[in-house]
């Protein structure tokens, strides 16, 4: 076989083992008994040791030197394998294994600390996670430590560029939020119980409406909603509060956005570096456009209003009031339940704090105080318990430093995609009014998803939209939408 074919064969097995590691993580969050945490940590560490050895196999360097690209696909595969090899060989096997073991344990410690509102029970473990992530960043960095970690999730992006985009967004978001909160329109939350089983049935209907392929996926419960896997095994989770059905509905739609991206990638790319979403920012664009521009639109909420009335009885409001409630703006504590105006401000808070953690400007022992002070500054309310504050998200417990800014980048990309899609795709709103996102899904599949990792993140968005991505379409969409709902 040629060097390129040898490399592909090696990569195929590595990708398959990586998928198995993902299944171990899914099982840990969804199915694993609590008492198995120590055993799972050893299993995860053992598998990571095998994966690290494969990713740093000296033969890869030889294959890359001899392999020849015949087309854009093979050229991109060689580029991505080379990038992965370069990063993996900088990280000692001991560090990779230790990180896998610790973050497997840390996840359970975080979940228990969150449930018990006991920040002190999690801080020692988080200190170890941050120590290892700093060490990893030092191995990878050619300057900025945080950028070395960010590059894992949004290749090519820098914290300076992201901070500049955030600075341009912050003022308009706060100004619009303040006008909305000063409006006479004030949607009030539900005051009734929404049984769990009925919510789950409705969540499945919503997942189907957005094109989720149930033959290659499943819906389960977890502490923090997430999407896992890809290709022919793309799973999602949700969580349920019987007093707030929107948390379940929109977390499900959000995760379906991730999963349908993975399900739509060209099957020829499976078990290659092209067989996944190209970056977390692009991935978030798929979940956020599903959740917000489509899922919170007036046409779709009109359909949802009827489905909820059928499932739970009279909701005490008409479709217009229901649409306003779905898009209610308030100073809530929880990012995943946040409205579209405050959401990006949540991300900016986390972005600044985790940059300071990695640089050493902020120590873990001072994180809770720093979070609470910044939250009160940005949102005008005081955090009263850890689950409202820095314990609410799973990301830091599993070492995902550099991940958070991709959520806001996803919103920016989603704004661009929505504008481009609606310019050439008639019938989107008419279909959404019938509970059918097919026209939007087809456009996203054809223009973005099918290509997987074929292009860089920015090239992926530019290819789909025909223009460079900017925050302008997102801000215009938010202004138009919320001025209409709140009669500004």
TrEMBL record:
Pfam families: Peptidase_M32
EC number: 3.4.17.19
Catalytic activity: Release of a C-terminal amino acid with broad specificity, except for -Pro
Alphabetized GO MF terms: carboxypeptidase activity
Top-level lineage group: Bacteria
InterPro entries: Peptidase_M32_Taq
Name of the protein: Metal-dependent carboxypeptidase
Organism: Thioclava nitratireducens
Lineage, opening ranks: Bacteria, Pseudomonadati, Pseudomonadota, Alphaproteobacteria, Rhodobacterales
